[in-house]
């Protein structure tokens, strides 16, 4: 029975990328059964989402890149602000994987594989994938699929959720499980999936239009993927979970035509993000990355040429050709002195040149223009650490980790700074937070217990550690209860 639930839910998740059918007036967007509360409440979805995110951190190569994360987050929340039926906060993150894929799960979590950047030619194409995933969350497709399955089987909600999350994370396993079901249940699942997909496309394309992206890039991207992998013996995960039959692509094109034409200029930040992925997260040699930049630049618009120069600078920086990197970054910063892609690279350059004080000065100046910006703040803290200004770094990082508790970058740097000053208890506490983010509850509690033993008896610091232990114990028990 669990195998059956697993396969059915797997196909539900396949709905994560589809084709639209929405008129611009949006009055043909019916609110189709978003009340899945009979099976799972919004609060429960948030709990399951948080638990699964911790499992993903522990098992997947999450991209902890402040610049890329800021960019993806900005696009995601631009879309969310234009979406209907938003009932949860949203978290966008990237997984280092060249396969084309994206998926969403409980609690507003949306994952993008870095491979998407290698295949999406424009920001609107990337946004079309994200808008589709956002629609799966806002329309509660996972909870609704569970509700449908619960009507036909006595499986517990916990078992259904576990099956569903497995299917999201491993579409191949889900598809394999599907073959064990009857033909009738298979067809029912496929039909339901197609329904989810069309609904996600309808809402997704409406969101794209309101957010001022090019709606035509949705059918353009989907059509290109379908053509590229039409005869592939092993299609990418996204096409396993998001099948693209011709009628869906045709439907998307027709829907896009209902929207007024919108001329969208090329996004330099999208192409900078794409260049960063090619240089650092595509799993190719530096010579291959450099060749890609040179070849692609020859046929690209003059408006995005700087992105290819930026990509070359990253390759030079990562291969320790610092003079070449500096020459390019100096030119780029003169053109756009407040661009976080360039500033982040400049900070890394100065540190590589053994001049971390230059990075400190630059980041401090930019913080007056962009106070509390996470990219600049984390670079500032790192530069302070490299400049051996450990106490200053700790002060910055204490504030940063309070405001961004789920960013492991902050905790890693805080651990390093405290080690340099011999603050063993605070180092243990920082490392404990990283373990908790990876659902390693017992190890996290153990480190906090050690920190408490090192703290002065009866001190505020010890009280803080003990209070955190109580919180982690409660979180661990809640997590175990979900399994």
Automatic annotation (TrEMBL):
The entry's keywords: Hydrolase, Metal-binding, Metalloprotease, Periplasm, Protease, Signal, Zinc
InterPro entries assigned: Mito/Outer_Membr_Metalloprot, Peptidase_M48, Protease_BepA, TPR-like_helical_dom_sf, TPR_rpt
Alphabetical list of SUPFAM superfamilies matching this protein: TPR-like
Required co-factors: Zn(2+)
Active site: 133, 201
Pfam families from the UniProt entry: Peptidase_M48, TPR_19, TPR_8
Coarse class of the protein's main subcellular location: periplasm
Signal sequence coordinates: 1-25
Record-listed E.C. numbers: 3.4.-.-
Subcellular location: Periplasm
Gene3D superfamilies per UniProt: Metalloproteases ('zincins'), catalytic domain, Tetratricopeptide repeat domain
Binding site for Zn(2+): 132, 136, 197
Molecular function terms from GO: metalloendopeptidase activity; zinc ion binding
Top EC category: hydrolase
Name listed for the protein in its UniProt record: Putative beta-barrel assembly-enhancing protease
Native source species: Vibrio thalassae
């Amino acid at each position: 029975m669990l195998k059956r639930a697993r396969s059915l839910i797997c196909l539900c998740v396949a709905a994560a990328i589809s084709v639209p059918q929405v008129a611009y007036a949006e009055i043909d967007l019916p609110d189709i059964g978003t009340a899945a509360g009979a099976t799972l409440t919004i609060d429960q979805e948030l709990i399951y989402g948080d638990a699964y995110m911790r499992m993903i951190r522990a098992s997947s190569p999450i991209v902890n890149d402040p610049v890329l994360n800021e960019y993806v987050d900005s696009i995601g929340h631009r879309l969310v602000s234009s979406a209907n039926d938003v009932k949860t906060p949203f978290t966008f993150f990237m997984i280092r994987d060249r396969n084309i894929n994206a998926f969403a799960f409980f609690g507003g979590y949306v994952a993008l594989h870095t491979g998407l950047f290698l295949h999406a030619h424009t920001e609107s194409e990337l946004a079309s994938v994200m808008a589709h995933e956002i629609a799966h969350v806002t329309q509660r497709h996972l909870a609704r699929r569970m509700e449908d399955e619960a009507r036909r089987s006595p499986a517990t909600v916990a078992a259904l959720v576990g099956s569903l999350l497995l299917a999201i994370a491993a579409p191949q396993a889900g598809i394999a499980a599907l073959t064990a079901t009857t033909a009738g249940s298979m067809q029912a699942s496929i039909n339901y999936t197609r329904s989810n997909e069309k609904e996600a496309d309808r809402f997704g394309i409406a969101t794209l239009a309101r957010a001022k992206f090019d709606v035509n890039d949705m059918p353009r991207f989907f059509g290109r993927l379908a053509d590229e992998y039409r005869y592939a013996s092993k299609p990418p995960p996204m096409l396993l979970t998001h099948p693209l039959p011709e009628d869906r692509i045709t439907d998307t094109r027709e829907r896009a035509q209902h929207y007024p034409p919108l001329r969208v200029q090329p996004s330099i930040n999208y192409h900078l993000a794409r260049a960063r992925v090619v240089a650092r997260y595509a799993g190719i040699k530096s010579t291959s990355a450099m060749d890609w930049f040179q070849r692609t630049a020859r046929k690209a618009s003059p408006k995005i040429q700087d992105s290819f120069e930026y990509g070359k600078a990253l390759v030079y920086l990562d291969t320790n050709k610092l003079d070449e990197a500096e020459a390019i970054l100096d030119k780029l910063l003169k053109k756009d002195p407040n661009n976080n892609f360039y500033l982040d690279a400049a900070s890394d350059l100065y540190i590589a040149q053994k001049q971390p004080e230059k990075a400190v000065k630059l980041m401090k100046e930019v913080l007056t223009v962009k106070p509390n910006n996470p990219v600049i703040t984390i670079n500032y803290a790192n530069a302070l650490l490299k400049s051996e200004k450990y106490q200053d770094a700790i002060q910055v990082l204490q504030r940063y980790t309070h405001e961004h508790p789920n960013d492991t970058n902050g905790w890693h740097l805080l651990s390093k700074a405290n080690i340099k000053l011999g603050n063993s208890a605070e180092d243990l506490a920082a490392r404990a937070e990283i373990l908790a983010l990876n659902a390693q509850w017992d190890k996290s509690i153990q480190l906090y217990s050690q920190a408490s033993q090192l703290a002065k008896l009866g001190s505020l610091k010890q009280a803080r550690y003990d209070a955190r232990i109580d919180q982690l114990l409660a979180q661990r028990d809640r997590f175990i209860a979900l399994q």
